[in-house]
Amino acid sequence: MTIKITPTKKLLVSLFRFTCVASIVATLHGCASLSDHWQIVTVEDTASGAAPTQYESSIKSYLGNTLKDPFSAQYRNFSSPQPYVETTRIVTQAPTLVNVNGSATEMRKHCWLVTVDVNAKNSYGAYAGWTTHVFLFRGENIISAVERRA
Q: What pLDDT digit, counting tens, does each position of 79-100 carry?
């Protein structure tokens, strides 16, 4: 069985394809233009304090409260404190179809970054493997801690 395509059907198929492509392009064009209308307000907090001197004992004390078996913890590669700027963005008004402008607040907090590799036992009594922990300090106080697995 063969289907015979008449010139009218070809025209309708071509018109349908053109309409689909045009609507997709128009939709994507509208989405792309929204990103150009962001107003970003930056709030800078430069009070990082002096570089921490007791960071090793602070980190060991912190991890002593978070590890399953803190007495088994092994530490290596303590980095010296490095200046760091932690940046966080908070969207205060997202773009919508009615209001294409978006606004966000960018918080920039100056602090000190210290990394250390830690290996400690897990719940089963086996060493879990070396993980890198990243600590942010303001003066002698830890303000953030994140574990990164390799």
A: 999 999 999 888 888 777 777 7
Give the single-character DSSP code of 4.
P
Asked if residues 115 and 79 have their Cβ atoms less than 8 Å apart, the reply is yes
Coil, helix or strand at residue 97: coil
Each residue's pLDDT tens digit, 66-82: 988 889 999 999 999 99
Which of 45, 106, 116 has its CA nearest to residue 79?
A: 116
- In 3-state terms, what secondary structure has residue 61? helix
Q: How far apart are CA 44 and CA 87, in angstroms?
A: 9
Question: Is 103 within 8 Å of 149 (Cβ atoms)?
Answer: no
**98: phi then psi, degrees, rounded to nearest 5:** -80, -45
Count helices and strands (H / E) in the chain: 2, 6
The two tokens of residue 23 are: 């609507």
